[in-house]
Amino acid sequence: MLPQSSTGLLAALLLSALPANADGLYTKKSPVLQLTPKTYGSLIANSNHTSIVEFYAPWCGHCQNLKPAYEKAAQNLNGLAKVAAINCDEDENKPFCGQMGVQGFPTLKIIVPSKKPGKPRVEDYQGQRSAKAIVDAVVDRIPNHVKRATDKDLDKWVAQNEDRPKAILFTEKGSTGSLIRALAIDFLGAIDVAQHWSFCPGADAEPKIYEGELKKKPITEFLSQFAAPNPDATGEAAGDSKPKSKSKAKPTKNGKPESREDAVENQEPEVKPTQEPVAAPSIPSLETLEELNSKCLGPKTNTCVLALVADPEKANVLSALSEIAHRHSQRGAQLFPLFDIPSANTGAQSVRTQLGLGDSNPVELLAINSRRGWWRRYETANDLSIAAIEAWFDAVRLGDGAKEKLPEGIVDAPQDKETSDHDEL
Ligand SMILES: *[C@@H]1O[C@H](CO)[C@@H](O)[C@H](O)[C@H]1NC(C)=O
């Protein structure tokens, strides 16, 4: 029995003995995953999923300000990527925060799995500290293991790796959404996932068709009939797509292991000698200012995309654009006209100047709608993959994302007869 007078002292001793992380910014209920150096290894560095990690100190004002946006980002990324935080004020975490190069709080790093397990690519996130900007940056970096199958190579893809079930998403969307990418990661090595233009064609085998909503939980349940998801499968997603596509899983048997490459994005359809080569015609080049004005900067021209690309990247970018245009035309889908603007075209420099782009960026892809007076820049010029560019085209087409107002004087004043009259997509 304690004497009455010592209870106050006892309470004070107990309080100071509580672990310091009781003072961390995020509670147990928070959607933000709380890390220690140990769990960083197992949950983040060894994950097949992309993660974002906040290194913070509970006393830091900017960290406290970030908290609501960060928790919202965690909610929106639930099922798509991991959102975690580590309290660098804790003694046992300090050396780790130091090793990670943390010099101020909060520091946000995006961790992207590489081909080598346990050796992810770590990038500093320096974008805006809003939920949307964080979500966009993370979603952009979700690895894409979804095979983009064309009519030509779908059968071949289905036939390979026979022991593995296959799931095919039939969609009219050109880009590969975050939900399907996250699912492909959850089932990496267990179920091969592809995306195919347009809707479900007649199939020979007995496909199981999923006709539910495009939400992560029910799709995961559906796919789990065929193979269990991986240990670090993420939870339910907020859901990023409209339920307008169907997906179909086709169980198959007996086969050899596939090279992972086959499932990775940007794989050009393989051209076998026995097949007709898939030749993507080059996109037109606008050599003169007059051509540029008439095709893209006329008072009545609709959305067009200009590629201003300096040399080392030129061939790559133009071939990616040709490929995208070609794929669209193969499936009879509309795409805005794409033009290559050689730097010798006097218009090229004036577009850069008038839009305030500067010269530093050797690759500029610009969507311009002169008739409506807006333009947009392809911001992630460090990712020039077909998938990334196509995702941007989708965003432009669907009107997602911010448009800039075209400055006065950039649109060619005189009415031009050659203006294209295609519809707004
Ligand atoms: C990552 O993917 C591989 C298949 O490539 C799988 O075997 C492994 O379990 C996955 N890792 C986790 C942590 O889920």
From TrEMBL:
Residues in the signal sequence: 1-24
GO cellular component: endoplasmic reticulum lumen
Enzyme Commission numbers on file: 5.3.4.1
Catalytic activity as recorded in UniProt: Catalyzes the rearrangement of -S-S- bonds in proteins
GO MF terms held by the record: protein disulfide isomerase activity; protein-disulfide reductase activity
Broadest EC class assigned to this enzyme: isomerase
Keyword terms, alphabetized: Disulfide bond, Isomerase, Redox-active center, Signal
Residue ranges with Basic residues bias: 244-253
GO biological processes: response to endoplasmic reticulum stress
Residue ranges, annotated region (Disordered): 228-282
Skewed-composition ranges (Basic and acidic residues): 255-273
CDD domains: PDI_a_MPD1_like
Subcellular location: Endoplasmic reticulum lumen
Keyword Signal appears in the UniProt entry: yes
Domain Thioredoxin: 11-144
UniProt keyword Disulfide bond, yes or no: yes
Protein name, as recorded: protein disulfide-isomerase
